[in-house]
Each structure stands twice: as structure tokens, then as C-alpha cells.
Amino acid sequence: MSEKNGKIRPETVAQVVEEDLLPLEGATGHEPLDFSYDREFAVDESYKATLPDLQNGSLIRGAPIRLEKVGIHNFRLPIKYRRRGSDDLIELETSVTGTVSLEACKKGINMSRIMRAFYEHKDSQFTIDTLAKILGDYKRSLESFEAQIMLKLSYPIPQKSLRSGLEGYQYYDVIMEMGLDKSDRIHKTLHFDFVYSSACPCSFELAEHARSLRNKATVSHSQRSSARISVKFEEMIWIEDLHDLCLEALQTETQVMVKREDEQAFAELNGSYLKFVEDAARLLYEGLSRDGRILDFKIVCSHLESLHSHDAVAVVAKGVQNGFNTDVTYNEFRTLLK
Fold first, then answer.
1. Residues of the chain with pLDDT > 70: what percent?
2. Burial of residue 237 (number of CB atoms within 10 Å: 0-12, 13-18, 19+)
3. Which domains, ranges and CATH numbers included, belong to the chain?
């Protein structure tokens, strides 16, 4: 240790130990700490039995209340997903959030068991139904009453250009959620983001007015727009099913590969399917309502206005009792920026 401007300054960790801790050896009877890492040390069952476990037997800090969710967030691993109508697998990096309920009488949980449950199934042909087995496994392992899983991924679907025949991959933000309650009932939710172009009907009419009455060259405004649909279901729904539903309802999905003929086709497509943000929400509502597999749904649309310096938004839910509501946080709206 050295002294500078009246203050004690440690030179190194080793020096702190040597100068501060070792003089206490005589008073405490402790041997000096060994700071070397033993690469040859092997752990056996008898040694593991001596390891302390703070989650069992130690006092609960703070209020002894039940916690609805305790677990891990953004644990990442590659998962093999099965596509609709095919045995082909696609491996995608997936962010996992896994939680369980924690009763008031329990100190904590062994969070590594959640990760181990996923690794035990990492080579499975994965669908949202695979989550049911994983949920059951770590709910039993952690001796919890409830368990939840959330998977976040970017899912590729091939898209063919409008006229040239080129093909590329469009990527979709997807979140799969599954919950297992006290009665072992499974609750499934799928969130799907769809990016499309929205051409303003009002701008189109004003542009046509200037063209016809004053022979003025005009460009009506359109913008990249996003829709997030969330659905609850029991019978299997594929990611491709939600894509097809959004495409059928809105028509004007943004393109991946384009030549000049495709760009012209896209302009014509937008002219054929003009829409305000409220139109988009109602079109999606109509489409979701027709699918008998969907028990409940919520729609959030955001048009990133090219005319205004603000966005236009619309939110609607199916209206199921104790189901989705129309509450949307500021951050949720921000995540629709694509």
C-alpha cells in the first residue's frame, strides 16, 4: 500500500492481500488464500454435497410475497423449426425468456434448470407445441405451480417478386408464448409483425385533382407501415398461416427483390389497395375473425407517415372477456418502427 495526498492507495490486489489480510492470520487462525486456479481439480458427489445452497434454508429478504414470474431473459440458442407442410428444418437463433411462479415461502429457483430443459430438446423438430413438453419439464423440475416461455426469433419466408420472377427471403419478427397454469392448462399465444406499404387515399385523390384540372405532375404519398397481430389459439397455427392472412387482408407487403417491372407493379398494387391506418386495422380484424382456430386476437397498426412528422396508429382487439385489451405502451409503439 502507498500513501498519496493523505489517502491509502492499493498498488495491486496481491499487495492488498499481502499487506492487509495476512497480518490477520495470527488473529483468525486462517491460512493465506490460494489465488491459483487448479485446472486438475475434479468434483465428485461427496464434494458437491458440501456446496452451500442459498436457495434452501436461508432467510427471505424483503416482503415474503408470491412472485408471478422469476427466471431468465434473452438466453440464446439455435433451435430447429419445422416449416408448414414440410419436414424440412430451419435452424434459427432464438432468444428465450423462461419464468416460473415463486411462492412466498421459497427463497429462489435454480435458474440453470430452465436452460437445461431447452438443451435437452435442442435437437427436436420444433413447433410451438414442443414448448408444452419443455414447460412441463422445468415446471416439475423447479417444483413450481406455473411456468411461462417466450421465444423471440426472425423467421424467413421466401417471397417472389411481382413480375420479374426473382425470389428473396423476407424476414418476420415473431414471438411465441406459452403458459402452463396451476391446473396444467396450456395457453398459447403467437405475435407476428407484418411490414407493408400504405398509400393514402386522400393524397391520391388530391394528386389526381391537380393532374386533371391543372395538368400538374404529382406523387401521392405512401409509407412503410407495420402491423403486429397477436393471437391466442389451441389448434396449431403456423407462422406461415399468419403471413398468408396478413397478405390477403392488406395485399401491399414490402418487396425484397425488384426490377423496373416490379417497381411499376408495386405502384399499381398500391393504387389498387389504398388504405388509411384504420382501414388496415379493420381489414385485419375481418381476416382474423374468419379463422375458427383463433380464440382471441389483438391488432396494432402503425403508419410511419411520409407527409407528417408523426405516425398514425390504430389498435383493436376481438373483445373476448378477460382476453386481450387495447392497452399499448409507448415502447410497444416504438418497436413497430421497421
1. 90
2. buried
3. 2-48 (no CATH), 67-334 (3.10.270.10)
The stretches of the chain forming alpha helices (DSSP H) are 13-16, 25-28, 45-48, 112-119, 130-141, 201-214, 239-250, 260-272, 277-289, 330-334
The verdict on pTM exceeding 0.85 is: no
pLDDT at 327: 93
- 133 is written with which cell numbers? 413438453
Distance CA 173, CA 156 (A): 9
Q: Over 80: is that where the pLDDT of 213 sits? A: yes
High-pLDDT (> 90) share of the chain, %? 56
Residues linked to residue 126 through DSSP beta bridges, in sequence order: 81
C-alpha cell at 237: 397455427
| Angle at the Cα of 265 from the Cα atoms of 264 and 271, rounded to 5 degrees | 95
Helix 239-250 vs helix 277-289: crossing angle, to nearest 10: 130
Residue 197's contacts (CB-CB under 8 Å, 6 or more residues apart) are 222, 223, 224, 225, 252, 253, 254, 266, 270
**Do 100 and 142 touch, CB atoms closer than 8 A?**
yes
Distance CA 46, CA 2 (A): 45
